[in-house]
Amino acid sequence: MTLTFHKYQGTGNDFVIFDDRAAQFDTADHARIARLCDRRFGIGADGLMLLRNREGYDFEMVYFNADGHPSTMCGNGGRCLVAFAKYLGVVADDAYFLAVDGPHAARVEADGTVRLKMIDAAAPQLAEVGEADVFVHTGSPHHVHFLDAEEGYTLAEFDVYGAGHDIRYDQAYDPAGVNVNFVEVPADPAHPWPVRTYERGVENETLSCGTGVTAVALAASQRGAASPVRLQTPGGLLEVAFQAQPGGGFADVWLSGPAVRVFGGEISL
């Protein structure tokens, strides 16, 4: 079977996308999905998404990590899929779709920015790994570590792969594991917060992670950051807006940033 694919990226977080409204894609063939995401033997991507029909919604988002397995919510992926839906003519500027963590609203702005409404989140909880670390669930589970000046290194120098791998597989997060975000605290909390992320399922650092920067923004609010929070990833700048709730949680959480079609083609499956 030959299918047309599309490659999208949101601040360097890249995805292979298929228009699967005819429901022809074999979602059980995890090895084939992993091959399609392979950067040497396939198209190459951090994840793969299907756009499918779903009654009551503009479309459904079906997401797989680069290892070929279904995963939790992907924020940059959701934003890219909204841009793809507009490219197909499935939606105009506003979208309402279903993902693995529930319904999401989104909007494509005139400048190409895609704003995605994330799920409400509980207050950041102290993590079981590390003294200055917190855990936040933003549709995907995230461990957030703030680099302190006394640690003696900058985020650019930090071993994200090594430290991220260790925390991702720490027994505190068995059996599913966790995504791990490392944050450099800016001198002025109104300035962009530098973030680097190790993603489970990719098992490496990615250039950006949407649910990750959302977790960082919510955690940073406990360190003086006010909504909206700007976050600088290696792949570009993202913004997270939110409303803090009296009980310590967060509502009306929106992730904003670019979502760009890179290229498309055909591939035999």
TrEMBL record:
<dbReference type="Pfam" id="PF01678">
    <property type="entry name" value="DAP_epimerase"/>
</dbReference>
<comment type="function">
    <text>Catalyzes the stereoinversion of LL-2,6-diaminopimelate (L,L-DAP) to meso-diaminopimelate (meso-DAP), a precursor of L-lysine and an essential component of the bacterial peptidoglycan.</text>
</comment>
<dbReference type="InterPro" id="IPR001653">
    <property type="entry name" value="DAP_epimerase_DapF"/>
</dbReference>
<feature type="binding site">
    <location>
        <begin position="210"/>
        <end position="211"/>
    </location>
    <ligand>
        <name>substrate</name>
    </ligand>
</feature>
<comment type="pathway">
    <text>Amino-acid biosynthesis; L-lysine biosynthesis via DAP pathway; DL-2,6-diaminopimelate from LL-2,6-diaminopimelate: step 1/1.</text>
</comment>
<feature type="active site" description="Proton donor">
    <location>
        <position position="74"/>
    </location>
</feature>
<feature type="site" description="Could be important to modulate the pK values of the two catalytic cysteine residues">
    <location>
        <position position="199"/>
    </location>
</feature>
<keyword id="KW-0413">Isomerase</keyword>
<comment type="subunit">
    <text>Homodimer.</text>
</comment>
<keyword id="KW-0028">Amino-acid biosynthesis</keyword>
<dbReference type="GO" id="GO:0008837">
    <property type="term" value="F:diaminopimelate epimerase activity"/>
</dbReference>
<dbReference type="GO" id="GO:0009089">
    <property type="term" value="P:lysine biosynthetic process via diaminopimelate"/>
</dbReference>
<feature type="site" description="Could be important to modulate the pK values of the two catalytic cysteine residues">
    <location>
        <position position="142"/>
    </location>
</feature>
<feature type="binding site">
    <location>
        <position position="65"/>
    </location>
    <ligand>
        <name>substrate</name>
    </ligand>
</feature>
<feature type="binding site">
    <location>
        <begin position="199"/>
        <end position="200"/>
    </location>
    <ligand>
        <name>substrate</name>
    </ligand>
</feature>
<feature type="binding site">
    <location>
        <position position="13"/>
    </location>
    <ligand>
        <name>substrate</name>
    </ligand>
</feature>
<protein>
    <recommendedName>
        <fullName>Diaminopimelate epimerase</fullName>
        <ecNumber>5.1.1.7</ecNumber>
    </recommendedName>
</protein>
<feature type="binding site">
    <location>
        <begin position="75"/>
        <end position="76"/>
    </location>
    <ligand>
        <name>substrate</name>
    </ligand>
</feature>
<keyword id="KW-0457">Lysine biosynthesis</keyword>
<feature type="binding site">
    <location>
        <position position="179"/>
    </location>
    <ligand>
        <name>substrate</name>
    </ligand>
</feature>
<comment type="similarity">
    <text>Belongs to the diaminopimelate epimerase family.</text>
</comment>
<dbReference type="GO" id="GO:0005829">
    <property type="term" value="C:cytosol"/>
</dbReference>
<keyword id="KW-0963">Cytoplasm</keyword>
<feature type="active site" description="Proton acceptor">
    <location>
        <position position="209"/>
    </location>
</feature>
